[in-house]
What does this fold into?
Amino acid sequence: MKTRLFPIFLLVILTIESFTLSDKKSFDLKKHLTKAFVYVPSGIAIVNGDSVSIQAFYVYNKEVTNFDYLEFLYDLKSKGELESLKIAAIDTLGWNSLNFSNQAYVQYYHNHPAYRDYPVVNISHEAAQMYCKWLGERYDQKSATTGKFKFRLMEKAEYVRAARGDSEANYAWNSNSLRNSGGKIQCNFTQFGSEDIHRNEETGKLEIIVAPRDFWDNGFSDILAPSVSYWTNQFNIYNLNGNVAEMIVENGVAMGGSWRNTGYDVRVESEQKYIGPNPSTGFRVVISAF
It folds into this structure.
């Protein structure tokens, strides 16, 4: 199926030379940034028991979408950057690593308009870094502050800071519960109920045995949910827990868990290891000052 590629839209406009990320009073956020990026103030993040001081930064308030990424691929192709295009290519066959009927995802997920606002997956760490660099270059073309800002993947401590802020809660919505006060699930993850728990009579231990059911009856949102879904956290950021685990600067490590993980494994400090492109790992972009 051929995909219609829409014109590249402007993600960021910054025009004041004196602007600095560390001084929030020196700029008007609404005037100088689109709604795509949100401000995370400087503060402390607790990472593996250590306190890490974090400078203020901007972060994409949603996971990078299929639409975002297709614009990137289209730009590479239009410029004839074929070697870069090979690195950035989406591995659609990554869906075949899952144990359910997935041909529709192989064929449609990355290019059908119905999935344009869903997070891009099945790309490599190098490809995600290339996207960040490309986005920064496009920003430089539109900005009077060329070279002052860096577009990149998040550091682990920045992810924790963006998700938790000054809270110590397990989840980005400042709570240790996966449900809100109205009883609604707060993110996209693999849910289990009492019907899935078995006590092994020989060992006395509880075991999970998934009871037969329609896959989508378990609370999933077409496996993945749109990048803008559920509710934002205190910094107005979507889906820092669940949906897709998020690549960070450190290759092979993704934070926050995904739709394939259970509730315990979509906590703020949850780390997943990955090797290459896969259908449960995506990313978002950070802007920091040099």
Q: What stands out?
A: Helices lie at 29-32, 66-78, 82-88, 103-108, 125-142, 156-164. The first strand starts at residue 37 and ends at 40.
